[in-house]
């Protein structure tokens, strides 16, 4: 039923705030691993190959990509809240597996579950926030969502580094993970479903829901916007996979302690998270394309700076730049998907985008691992920086602006021009 449902941030601030807090727990769940787990591969399990050590990121990325796609398909059928709760139930075994792992294979399996949990919970909170705010404040909504998630990633990574140095990596990830998973599940119980809000937004503008395979096909190349957004998301998580898996090894190899490594690596996600309070809302005013292109170019330059820096202060400065560049891109890509996708198939579009984006973790783990083994961590970081900048140039060439300007202000039409172009594509036979 949709009677009495009102769209907008002010009208739905209680549920919106609860979802922001829930997403902070989602971010904390994965953030605990970012400092400790790559180091544990060598110290506790005797793994010396970077490619083997980053195998946990491959399973994480594959599981997250698959569940993003599944979550998108399911939520389009009116099951937002159940998907969120199932995601948190999948989180509960993860810390137990880590605490009792006799081999690295158990860690890899735990991260497959963690990837599934992240795919279901993060995707659902994104879609539910877009449902609540309606068509005009998507950038702000995504900025707040990603702010909460990635500040929590950074803080949890910092806490994980300190706990790991004091009590050991297993205890930090195991007991910390149990606390976060239990808290996230408890909070999610009070979340209300937002399917009715999506129906209100779609009222008077009904369209047939395209099959998932058609959305996938268009994202591969045929539609310039879906392709540009998807490839930028994939490359963005490719370099985030590098940051997760290689930065701790790079900083430990440069002589930093585990506590110092935790402090330095936290700079990137915390900057990323905080800056999204501004960048998401700015994309509602300035448009999406220029922020995505500028952010990808800044990320590429910052990664090269991380690789070339020798002093800690220089590394921190480069990581701040990397965080700002990612903040320009991350919520803006999500908002752009919301721009072009009708509410009836928004879940499918978001699921396809997030599938491609999180396959970036797989590509990042494999590429960064092989390059690190062959040429060292600095060379791996530089190479992925160049790839990131090239991705930004690709967006500049192919992406159509999904939130066009009109007389210096954003056009506030309920159906942006790009949506008509995209729907024409979907009406064509496959």
Counted beta strands: 2
Terminal Cα span = 34 Å
CATH homologous superfamily title: MFS general substrate transporter like domains
Query: pLDDT average, as an integer?
Result: 85
Taken together, the total number of domains comes to 1
Unreliable residue stretches: 405-430
Strand content: under 5%
Structural class: mainly alpha
CATH class, named Mainly Alpha
Number of helices: 19
- Percent helix among the residues? over 70%
Give a short account of the largest sheet. Answer: 2 strands, antiparallel
Order of helices and strands: HHHHHHHHHHHHHHHHHHEEH
Shape: globular
Radius of gyration: 20 Å
* CATH fold descriptor: Growth Hormone, Chain: A
* Strand order within the widest beta sheet: 1-2
* CATH level-two architecture: Up-down Bundle
């Amino acid at each position: 039923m949709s009677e009495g449902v009102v769209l907008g941030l002010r009208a739905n601030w209680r549920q919106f705030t609860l979802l922001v807090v829930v997403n902070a727990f989602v971010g904390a769940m994965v953030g605990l691993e970012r400092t400790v787990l790559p180091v544990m591969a060598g110290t506790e399990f005797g793994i010396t190959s970077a490619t083997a050590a980053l195998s946990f990121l491959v399973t994480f990325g594959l599981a997250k990509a698959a569940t993003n796609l599944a979550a998108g398909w399911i939520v389009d059928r009116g099951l937002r809240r159940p998907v969120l709760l199932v995601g948190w139930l999948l989180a509960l075994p993860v810390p137990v597996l880590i605490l009792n792992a006799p081999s690295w294979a158990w860690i890899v399996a735990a991260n497959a579950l963690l990837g599934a949990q992240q795919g279901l919970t993060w995707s659902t909170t994104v879609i539910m926030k877009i449902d609540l705010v309606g068509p005009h404040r998507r950038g702000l909504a995504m900025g707040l969502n990603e702010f909460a998630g990635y500040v929590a990633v950074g803080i949890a990574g910092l806490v994980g580094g300190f706990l790991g140095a004091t009590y050991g990596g297993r205890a930090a990830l195991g007991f910390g993970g149990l606390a976060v998973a239990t808290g996230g599940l408890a909070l999610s119980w009070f979340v209300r479903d937002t399917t009715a809000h999506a129906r209100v937004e779609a009222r008077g503008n009904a369209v047939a829901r395209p099959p998932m395979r058609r959305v996938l096909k268009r994202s591969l190349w045929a539609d310039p916007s879906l392709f540009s957004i998807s490839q930028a998301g994939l490359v963005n998580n490719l370099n985030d996979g590098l940051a997760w898996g290689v930065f701790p090894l790079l900083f430990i190899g440069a002589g930093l302690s585990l506590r110092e490594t935790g402090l330095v690596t936290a700079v990137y996600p915390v900057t990323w998270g905080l800056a999204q309070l501004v960048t998401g809302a700015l994309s509602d005013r300035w448009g999406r394309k220029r922020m995505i292109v500028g952010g990808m170019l800044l990320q590429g330059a910052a990664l090269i700076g991380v690789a070339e820096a020798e002093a800690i202060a220089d590394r921190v400065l480069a990581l701040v730049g990397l965080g700002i560049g990612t903040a320009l891109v991350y919520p803006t890509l999500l908002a752009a998907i919301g721009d072009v996708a009708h509410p009836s198939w928004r879940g499918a579009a978001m699921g396809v985008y997030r599938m491609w984006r999180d396959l970036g973790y797989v590509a990042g783990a494999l590429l960064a691992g092989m390059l690190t083994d062959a040429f060292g961590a600095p060379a791996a970081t530089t190479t992925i920086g160049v790839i990131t900048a090239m991705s930004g140039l690709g967006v500049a060439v192919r992406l159509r602006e999904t939130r066009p300007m009109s007389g210096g202000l954003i056009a506030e039409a309920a159906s942006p021009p790009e949506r008509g172009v995209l729907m024409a594509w979907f009406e064509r036979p496959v």
